[in-house]
Specification:
CATH topology of the largest domain: Spore Coat Polysaccharide Biosynthesis Protein SpsA, Chain A
CATH architecture of the largest domain: Alpha-Beta Complex
Order of helices and strands: EHEHEHEEHEEEHHEHHHHHH
Number of helices: 12
Shape: globular
CATH class of the largest domain: Alpha Beta
Helix content: 25-40%
Strand content: 15-25%
Number of domains: 2
Length: 319
């Protein structure tokens, strides 16, 4: 039986802005258009040099659900800015929001319905994420689905190698937020939270495109990809290097949490892929778990690397 939304839990939408004047109005308008109206949007600016703050304040003056957070902390960077905001809000449900995206009007309603189903009466740590349309600066579609079939792979296999949890699509509960605070926030918040949900609770995916994921030359993913490209070993793809770079975090950064028995077995399989001595066992693990990879060629390259190297530790990109 699906939980009713009749008790109207308030969702904390958290938004970190940085020089976002060109697009932030469209995103805030899409929040105002949500079919689920019981939300508060907490916005903190991370040191903008443009007109972002004035735009934010104009929305806060028109609708009390917008709260502009002013502090003297200075520029935190996109990752730490969001972790900081997660720790500031009191609501039971939290939804990160990117300044240049546009939400579909039923995004909050659909996400809240699903998370209240998968968190169960025990309120286990839970996270819901959705697919999105990949669009250009004018919202013209570049790719119909940003995540696609990767998002539908259940369990750790769906995210541990190639993350399918897109930050701006997430809604998660306070139980997951509390687990998150137990470990150092080194990773992008989407992979960090997605992994914790799989290790300790539940993750749900909505295959419909619930937002327009806008890309332009100043977006965080474009700048991040450019930085990765600079450091890239071009003997294999940048996307596979991103996948390999997750390994040390999986091995070392989540040990403070109490994992489910299923998660323990899945992590053991994953670690064997990098450190095990039997290549045919590694191949069996790959076939058994059906891991999501960013691209099919990444899977084929990964298999080639397994048979070419005694272990994969020496291939992990340095930070």
């Amino acid at each position: 039986m699906h939980p009713s939304l009749n008790d109207h839990p308030t969702v904390a939408i958290v938004l970190s802005t940085y020089n976002g004047e060109a697009y932030i109005g469209a995103q805030l308008d899409s929040l105002l258009a949500q079919t689920y109206p019981y939300w508060r949007c907490y916005i903190r600016d991370d040191g903008s040099k443009d007109n972002s703050i004035a735009i934010i304040k104009s929305y806060a003056a028109k609708d009390p659900r917008f709260t502009f957070i002013e502090d003297q902390i200075g520029n935190l960077g996109v990752v730490q800015a969001y972790f900081h905001l997660f720790n500031q809000v009191p609501e039971d449900y939290i939804s990160p929001c990117d300044q240049d995206d546009v939400w579909r009007e039923d995004k909050l309603e659909r996400s809240l319905t699903l998370i209240r189903n998968i968190e169960t009466d025990h309120k286990i740590p839970a996270l819901v994420h959705t697919d999105s349309s990949f669009v250009d600066s004018h919202l013209k579609i570049i790719r119909e689905r940003f995540i696609g079939k990767r998002g539908q792979k259940k369990g750790l296999s769906g995210i541990i190698i190639a993350n399918s949890v897109q930050g701006g699509s997430i809604l998660f509960n306070s139980a997951l937020n509390n687990q998150s605070k137990k470990i150092s926030a080194k990773l992008p918040y989407d992979y960090h939270l997605g992994m914790i949900a799989e290790l300790t609770g539940a993750r749900g995916f909505i295959a419909d495109t619930m937002l327009q994921y806008r890309q332009h030359n100043t977006s965080s993913i474009a700048l991040g990809d450019a930085e990765i490209e600079k450091k890239a070993d071009h003997s294999f793809s940048v996307t596979l290097q991103v996948s390999l770079s997750n390994y040390p975090h999986v091995k070392h950064d989540f040990n403070a949490l109490t994992w489910t028995e299923t998660a323990k077995k899945q992590v053991a399989d994953y670690l064997y892929l990098f450190e095990g001595s039997n290549n045919f066992k590694k191949l069996y693990i790959l076939l058994k778990n059906q891991y999501a990879f960013y691209r099919r060629k990444d899977l084929l390259t990964f298999i080639r690397l397994i048979f070419k190297h005694d272990n994969l530790l020496g291939l992990i990109p340095s930070k």
